[in-house]
Design goal:
It comes from Sugiyamaella lignohabitans. Keywords: Cytoplasm, Nucleus, Protein transport, Transport. It is found in: Cytoplasm; Nucleus. This protein has about 270 residues and is mostly helical. It folds into 2 domains: about 100 residues, no CATH class; about 90 residues, no CATH class. Helix 7 packs antiparallel against helix 8. The longest helix is centred in the middle third of the chain and has 21 residues.
Length: about 270
């Protein structure tokens, strides 16, 4: 994957000239079929020299690419994400959450949510161990990332029942005492980051304490979530098509997308 060419495509999607934008969008549709595309997008998101606008464009496109094509409904789809690329991307997404700038972080959290819902625990059994190691670090960013990952693990078990839910007992036994300790240390803090971390602590307990619902209810919610992700996987950014009428400039569309991701961050 030519990262420079990919960078230029994302930069062109922000161009004021509609013809340049359309050309870049067509090039991205072709590029996203090539092996290395999602990791190339992540490279752009993490590169310090890249402008914030291009980073945002790459992050949003990446999010919609993962949500719609990590595990597509059509197993014979020609534009699904290459299986050989997934392990490397899974290894990179968690460190990326620690490094990425605050406006982009909710987008990467959404990506993590999609991958966990599809791959945990069978294709990603090491996720819990990686998460627990984050709590052993003394820096706030690592602990915050650990809470984010643990929340996604707990969220996965929310929609399980029977034998599939047995793994939750191990998660509670191993991790929850440490989570409680982190929560207690945050209670008297008055900054925004501490507030978000405390929110995640409460959500972790909330997700883990759900009582198993009837199987048909679980299937409905799971399918509904997958359908919602599928509906977001169409259009210019791989997301929902623009509403009829006046279309906002590309930079404004990006700002709106980032705001929506921040507000809907799981």
């Amino acid at each position: 994957m030519d990262i420079n060419a990919l960078h230029n495509c994302f930069a062109a999607t922000l161009d004021a000239d509609i013809n340049n934008r359309r050309r870049a969008e067509l090039e991205l549709k072709e590029a996203n079929k090539a092996p290395g595309f999602i990791n190339g997008c992540l490279d752009i998101v993490l590169e310090p020299q890249v402008s914030n606008g291009v980073k945002a464009a790459a992050a949003v496109y990446l999010k919609n690419r993962v949500s719609g094509h990590w595990m597509p409904y059509d197993k014979n789809a020609t534009d699904k994400i290459d299986e050989g690329e997934k392990p490397v991307f899974r290894e990179r997404i968690i460190p990326a959450l620690i490094k990425v700038s605050p406006p982009i972080r909710p987008v990467l959290v959404s990506i993590l949510n999609s991958i966990v819902s599809y791959d945990y625990p069978k294709q990603w059994p090491e996720l819990l161990d990686v998460t627990l190691k984050l709590f052993q670090n003394n820096d706030v960013d690592s602990i915050r990332c650990g809470l984010t990952c643990l929340l996604e693990v707990a969220r996965y078990y929310r929609w399980t029942s029977g034998e599939s839910r047995v793994g939750l007992d191990g998660v509670i036994e191993i991790a929850f005492a440490g989570v409680l300790s982190v929560g207690n240390s945050l209670v008297n803090e008055n900054n925004a980051a501490a507030g978000e971390m405390l929110r995640d602590v409460l959500k972790i307990y909330k997700m883990a304490s759900y009582v198993s619902a009837e199987p048909h209810s679980l299937c409905f919610h799971s399918s509904d979530a997958r359908l919602e992700r599928s509906e977001r996987s169409h259009g210019v950014w791989g997301g929902a098509p623009a509403a009829r009428g006046r279309v906002p400039p590309p930079q404004k569309r990006l700002e709106l997308e980032l705001t929506l991701n921040s507000n809907n961050c799981p």
